[in-house]
């Protein structure tokens, strides 16, 4: 059982009626906020330590789920959401990809328009509905002011690339190759699909973290061989 499914299961134990599908979206966020309000916890809609502790207690206050039985959260919700779309291609999977991108602002047909910013925005708004996003999320470099400074290529931070004054790329950091000085990004419009690719570290201008979600260290994703990418791979 994943942490996300456990979270939904425990919310249902406490009276919520949500789908236990492991997807953290508006339904789960609303249930979390309702639970937090009922337990006098700040209603952030995020499963922080205080909320998880309260969820471990049974609805009749008599039993407590042992800490060892709480699954580890291996990805924050926005990275999990992007990971669920891995492999979607702008041509082959155009209908499914477009339907997903419409959860955000949606620039248009991903086969005709750049959609890296569109993909990041969708992952954020689906899982962190209270998180402000750039006014023009489609321009990759606009994400350099998103949230707060992550201080470096922290796993799950939003990595922003500048190719030129007008051109850029944005994705979610999933690893860092210190030897080759390359950052691994999971994102859209990478070889025309949602993939994991590596980019030169010196092209990054920002690493940002959602201001509504607490900092936490997450493990790097094991992606096997990660293809190197450059400007041409993100056009």
UniProtKB/TrEMBL annotation:
This is Putative peptidoglycan binding domain protein. It comes from Roseibium alexandrii (strain DSM 17067 / NCIMB 14079 / DFL-11) (Labrenzia alexandrii). Transmembrane segments: none annotated. The lineage of its organism: Bacteria, Pseudomonadati, Pseudomonadota, Alphaproteobacteria, Hyphomicrobiales. Signal peptide: none annotated. Residues 6-55 form the Peptidoglycan binding-like domain.
